[in-house]
Every structure is written in C-alpha cells, then in structure tokens.
Amino acid sequence: MAQVDPGFWAGKRVLLTGHTGFKGGWAALWLHRMGAQVTGLALEPDQDPSLFELAALPDLVDSQFVDLRDAGDVAAALAGRTFDIVLHLAAQPIVRTAVADPVATFASNVMGTAHLLQALRGQPALRAVLVVTSDKVYANAETGRAFQEGDALGGKDPYSASKAAAEIVVASFARSYFDKAGVPVATARGGNVIGGGDFSPDRLVSDIVRAARGQEQVVLRHPEATRPWQHVLDCVAGYLVHAQALATRPDAPRALNFGPRPGGPEVTVGELATLGVEALGAQPWRHEPDPNSLEAKSLAIDASLARQALGFESRLDAPEAVRLTMDWYRRQANGEDARALCLDEIEAYEARA
Prior knowledge:
By secondary structure, this protein is of the alpha/beta class. It has one domain: NAD(P)-binding Rossmann-like Domain (Rossmann fold). It is 42% helix and 14% strand. The chain has helices at residues 6-9, 22-33, 51-54, 71-78, 95-100, 102-120, 158-178, 204-213, 232-248, 269-280, 304-310, 318-333, 338-351; strands at residues 13-17, 37-42, 62-65, 85-88, 128-132, 185-190, 192-194, 219-220, 226-227, 229-231, 255-258, 267-268, 286-287. Strands 3-2-1-4-5-6-11 form a 7-stranded parallel beta sheet, with helices on both faces. A two-stranded parallel ribbon has the order 7-10. The chain has a two-stranded parallel sheet with strand order 8-13. Helix 3 (51-54) links the parallel strand 2 (37-42) and strand 3 (62-65). Helix 4 (71-78) packs parallel to helix 6 (102-120) and helix 6 packs parallel to helix 7. 50% of the residues are buried. The model has no long low-confidence stretch (mean pLDDT 93).
C-alpha cells in the first residue's frame, strides 16, 4: 500500500495554499514534520478559534496573507520565490455561503485558481501542481451511484459549479502551458472530511462541537442525506501520495477521487451526528428541514482508481474517523495542546502502514 514518504518531502520547497484552514492546517503540520520548507498562501484565518492559531502554525510556516481573487497580489507574493511542489487547497468551501454569495465564491474558487496557475507559469524548478477540488464536481442525478473520475462534471448549486469550473480551468492551463514545460498539473477530488480542528460554520462536526460546548441542540437540515465521510488524515495522505506520484511518475493520473474504501458502510448525516453527540455527551440533534436547500441528498464517490493507480486507499472507516475526531475535540477542550494532538494522530496514522 502506498504511503506518505518523508524522504520525498524532506527539504522540498512546498507552496501550500489555504494553510489557515482546516485541511490546510493538518497538511502544514504533516509537511513540516517531514522536513519540508512550507510557504503558505491564504487569507488570514476567519474562524475563532482556528487550528492555525491553536496549533501555533505561524511558527512553522512562512505565511503570505493574500486574497487569491487579486491577481496582482498573488503574483507579487510569489515573486522571487521558488517551489518544487504546489498544493492548492485554498477555497471558499461552504455550500450555504456559496448560495448566499455566489459571485464571491466563483471569484475565489475559479478565478483564484486561474490567478495562482498564471503566477506559477514562470516557476523554474516546479515538479508538480496538485489542485484540490471536491467530490461535488460531478453532475449529480441523485441515483446513488458512486461517481468515477471520467463522469461528467456539473453542479446545480454555486459551490459545486465553482469546483467543476475549477476543474476545467486546471485542465486548460495544464494542456496550454504546463504540459509543454514538463510540469504535471492534476486535481484531487476529496470526500466529506471530518477531523479535529475544524471550527467552520455550517459544517456538521463543528456544529456538533459548538452545540455540545454550549449545551445546545445541533440542528440538521438533511439527516437522511448520505456523504462519503473521510478522516482528514486519510484525505491529506491521499493528496500527498498523489503529489509524490505526479513528481516521480509520468503515468500518474491527472484526476483522482479520494474517499472511503469501496464497499464500506454508508453513513447518513443523522447517523454521524448521533455518533458525535453521544461521544461528546451532547443533547440529541433535532431536524429542521430547509425547503430551499440545493444540497444533494445522495453523494458517493468511487476511490478505486487511487488504489489501482497509486496503491493508496483510506485506512479509517467512518466510526473510527468519528471516534478520533470527537476524541480530539474532547481532549483539546480539556486543555491539551492542539499541535501535540495533531502530531500524535499523524504519528499513529503513519504507524498503521
């Protein structure tokens, strides 16, 4: 089974966008632990608390606080800097925020990606670029079938459409510019990610945590909905293994799904919420339907190509992912250091190999 290779990342100059966010924070900690020289490019954290501050990431990452929607600022931030690998995680990631402000979401997720790729065209030592999009890039007819990488792109809500559009932007830049320069540019489509350190609004786990800490009930809009739940370490490990392959193998796929192991049990929003509130001793959740919601009721992705092409698959099933996640929040609330909690989980995850 393919693993994250510390020897590959040691000494690598890595540009990590979105390092002030949830997945970006975990990626920054893991990369630094392996000896990578990490430059972060992102907005300042907008969560309170944030993993960025709790884990003292400003001490580990060369942070450049830039709005990707500003092409001039992006180019200026990268001027004079040289990178080996680029991991583009920065985005506007919240579905309901995208519904409320679609133009800003398209500006961030589509034009922000274009601005970054344009600024990277002059990088002399670049070996690979991996752009993270979403499992929601596919045209979803709600049949329950797991999407594969060759399926049609689409998106009936602004967030999904913005990520599908980013896929087209990446493919066009790759074919027009980066392929000619011998630099592989690819996309990674991750499932719904859970784990410690996510304090975003309108995310299931963080909503459960806030409700538990405030002795309130968490409200679910679609408890019957199914999602490809995945622990953050499985998802970030997939990104890192994909980037390793892009930099070392000419046959590495240019688009990959990362999600639960094929054949694993489906877990609904309600079932995951029940596991979460029980683990934290919170009040039972309640259902408040949102008749105007555009969110898909059924979503599944087929991650078998990652196993076939890279030898990579997720190691944690949904119940274990929930257990690890809730344990992180419980211990952090009891005063344990957030960085130490993350690094302990990374070390334990690596030991599963």
